[in-house]
Predict the structure.
Amino acid sequence: MHQANAQLINAGAQYASGSTRHEHDLLGDRDVPDHVYYGIQTLRALENFNISGVSLQFFPTLISSLGIVKMAAAKANHDLGLLEDDVTDAMVQACDEIMKGKYHRHFVVDMIQGGAGTSTNMNANEVIANRALEIMGHKKGAYEYCHPNNHVNLSQSTNDAYPTAIKIALLYSNIKFVEVLKDLVDSFRQKGQEFADVIKMGRTQLQDAVPMTLGQEFEAYATMLEEEVERLENNADLFLEVNMGATAIGTGINADPDYSEKCVNHLRDITGLDIKLAKNLVEATQDTGAFIMYSSAVKRLAVKLSKISNDLRLLSSGPRTGFNEINLPPMQPGSSIMPGKVNPVIPEVVNQIAFKVIGNDLTVNLASEAGQLELNVMEPIIVQSLFENIEMLKNGMEVLKYRCIDGITANKEHCMNLVHNSIGLVTALNPVLGYEICTKLAKKALEENRSVYDLVLEQKLLSKEELDRVLAPENMVKPHKLTLNK
């Protein structure tokens, strides 16, 4: 991680490696390392916000989306006659290079920052301006030819450019996120088919309930997760509404009346997404409801994944003193002291990811509530929380699929033995023998450590043929016609 964890050269060390250029801002003059594309405002943010050690470059989709927004803005301003051809062309080329992955290492601002995202916006403005200057044949820092604020940030504010870039990045990130989720769903579904004939005991409140198949259990997991695809896609669609042209608070100050429409049209052309302008830009500039909704969908997925991971750990527990119905693929030795022990490390890490996601969702909610008046200044922590959640869950689901679910095997014979020895078997006899008789059978089986099957035959309640027919697997794991007992 970045300077906070001392993994990279510290901020001061970069001065020793070469020349500097002189830049100034509201607070005064500073020397900026000449080899970097960012400028004085990014340098100040780099020094001020040494917080998490996770900088913008950890999330390339966000950086590319900043390039998209700045390109659309440049084209709109050029359409309005506000930018010269050469400056526009250079800025568009710089944005295109950033969209393709170049210069991302110059996006150095920490994801967690004060200033409502201004540092992120200025990091983008300065990198684009300095690269555009190079394209035009000028030196970095020659801002009289292309200025981070006057040209790259023209007709914009952090308060419309930053959230718009975030939303586009989240839309793109969600596409990959959903693909990974669908792959995991497919794995569970394949296991459902593979285990379709494995009879086992279903449980409620961790007590024996009624028989089912292991295939039904895994098919349920597949359906449980498949539901989240639609939730994620529906909530991500909220990000299609942007506030470009709102500038500072939504009144559109310093923007041409036609700028918003032109900019949104360019965003549509560049992204291929159905981006539209918010109806009320004052509302859209302060409201973070879309982030709350999407975060809640991500959390819901995390909760389900954690529940499934709990189940996998239970079903594979043992191997001699637990459920031992399934075998998880062994990933690593489980103990430094207990020979032969193998732990369910993949479900365990998915559980931990879920805990972090749930906490980050609370952070999103608190940050959304904390916005005052015309702007929510807490957006950076919302952004950091959302992107961290997506990245962790995406990685976690891939690990869960390839290093756990795909390699699960069933202990078929053991599962069947548990069914035969279970008191819960008596439930299948309810429609035939009635609740009172079945209660007595269950009680006697428990007290005498006998099987329900043997007691039914011993008491001549049913013939062996009748009993086998009632307890046939196909009759225990799905609905069947009942007859009236007289």
